Input
Amino acid sequence: MRKFFKALLVIIIIIVIAAGAFALYVSQRSIPKYPVQKINIKAEVTPERIAQGQKLASMLCHSCHYNENTGEFTGRELTDAPQFGKIYSANITHDSIVGIGNWSDGDIIYFIRTGIKPDGQYVPPYMPKLTHISDEDLNSIIAFLRSDNSWVKANTTHMPESKPSFLTNFLVTIGAAKPFDYPTHPIPGPDTGNKVEWGKYIALYQMECYSCHSKSFAKNNYYEPEKSPGFFGGGNEMYNIDGKEIHSLNITMDKNTGIGNWTEADFIKAVTTGILPNNQPALRDPMHPYVNLSDDEVSAIYAYLQTVPAVNNKVERKF
Ligand code: HEC
Ligand code: HEC
Output
């Protein structure tokens, strides 16, 4: 018996030492680099694309890259993602030293789809990747980034290096956070004549509403969004700009716990203005009103949500 306990003790000591060594290894490790594929694309710039790109950037990039002090996309500290470390979004203005003035269109496209920068550096999930957005929408974002819009004009404000947390290093070390594959086929835009398909495109591939509105960021299926656990059933824990925990809400058509009793007009008003039916308190950060989505686009999302299976999941609104 004594022998058995001795052996057990030795095993426990080995496990503790191994765990300690692994923890040390993880904390010393930096975010890995990956091979880069050169993409030869020159996004043609048209006024329509610049306008569409600005609209998309105002909803998809502004919240993280816009800096109130400079009035430009010079980056800021992301205080709303403390679990990932001390993270700074980058300067993505035209400046060729601290910004992305020297990146080719292909460099930007490859990075936005996969998360790999031209030097091979991988950016973990604190910068979301647009794996499924259409080629046309992505080209529009490029056209906007190249435009003379005041948000992106060359600015030399330098952002400090991000300091990823132990959690981030752990996730990249075990491969739970890794780059997305670059798409092997062209990605067409949706058929806007088909409302359900159009709404699906916006909710899953363009604005990615599902990523916040399903069960958890960690469990989402980013390749096949519809397979995400608790798809649109809410309850995903996130932090607002003050670092307070807040939960996404159930936006399936469940009548008791979702928005099954809302009219289409209620939905359009809530999504575009943040004002809820019954004059409840307005929607709070990080659910920014999508002021730049047209009523037709939000109506298409509503039509699509009618086809999503209702989930019975009561989420209490916090504070
Ligand atoms: C949730 C926050 C967030 C959003 C939204 C976001 N980014 Fe980022 N982005 C980051 C962070 C954080 C980094 C820097 C990561 C690092 O290297 O530490 C970054 C880095 C970048 C870089 C690399 C710049 C460089 O010099 O290393 C580019 C380019 C970029 N983002 C473009 C975009 C575009 C375009 C959009 C909108 C389509 C966007 N980002 C949306 C957080 C965000
Ligand atoms: C960054 C994460 C995030 C994204 C992206 C997001 N939401 Fe939300 N949403 C939230 C959070 C958090 C709440 C709860 C806000 C609150 O409690 O004030 C919310 C609330 C809502 C509500 C209110 C539901 C209710 O019962 O009151 C609706 C409707 C909604 N979102 C629709 C959408 C649509 C449509 C999209 C995409 C166009 C979207 N959301 C994208 C985080 C997000």
Q: What stands out?
A: The chain has a mean pLDDT of 93. The domain at 195-305 is CATH 1.10.760 (Cytochrome Bc1 Complex; Chain D, domain 2).
